[in-house]
Amino acid sequence: MVEPRYGIWAPVGGNFGPLDTLEEPIDASYQRTQRLVLQAEQLGFTTTLVAQHIANPRGLELDQLETWTTSAALAAVTHRIEIIAAIKPLLFHPAVLAKMALGIDEISQGRFAINLISAWFRPELERINVPFLPHDDRYRYSGEWLQVVRALWSGDRVNFEGDHFKIQNLQLRPTPVSQPYPRIYLGGASDPAQILAAEQSDVYFINGQPIEDVRQVIQQVLGRSRPLPLPVRFGLAAFVIARATDAEAQQELERLQVLQDREEQWQLSIGKGVDPDAVMFRLFAKNKAVGGNGGTAAGLVGSYDTVASRIAAFREIGIETFMLQFNPFEIEMQRFADEVMPRVKRLQTVA
Which pLDDT belongs to residue 282? Predict the structure, then answer.
């Protein structure tokens, strides 16, 4: 079985889990993001995800790096790691985005990908007067948007007329370094998200959940119509707490949970901005966790052996890419690389 791909969430909005602690004060600077991504590359992580928000959902007064300029800068200073830039289609015309993506694809020499998300944070769109479409309409819009991007990445002359976009005799050059095009990731937990993932994505990102829930999601997506020649692959978001013993890891989880719960003002900020039809936030409410996008609900909390065995179990059911969060980031990422990654490799060798 192929080894897992490990990635990190770039800290473009500050920290994961508790936002402001003595161990890790708030820092959403490019300098920090670059340092951590370069460290991740040296440690053997193979990908990084740069989330997209115009305004920080944990507090509009907080710093938030811009996704596409950050991704271009990271592409220029890294050598092996994949750079995934998140994209909300409501913010960019598909022809403009397709051209920008081709530029970063060339800068990175084929290490660039996009993660399409159909948006859930209402205030950042409402404050710039971008219509916030109803949930299912956003996915229909995203589907057509993605059709245009994929067509333009082909290098052919494109003529397209749909419900939202009209393209007349447009051809983009240069063609992608990535062949046949930059990899397309897609996130979202609803039926429309799963349908779009099956139809047009290369990798479907699943938010952190217990393994049996993840198994069910994988089966649902694989059971949907798939017009593309290759099967969809799967990634998982998770917040990792790994220690020498399960008891130590549980103690750290409880400590971080208390600190996160104290940050009521930032929880309220997110809560007020969430689209009530966003399915993933119903899952988050069911699986209370430290970290974003499901975080510790994925169960990567425990001794080094426990976390390694759980990663191996997720890999067994079809998760290929693990997009990870840590706090404090630098120390815990190093710990994961030193203690957990070798254990997973040994488990797979034995298997």
Answer: 52
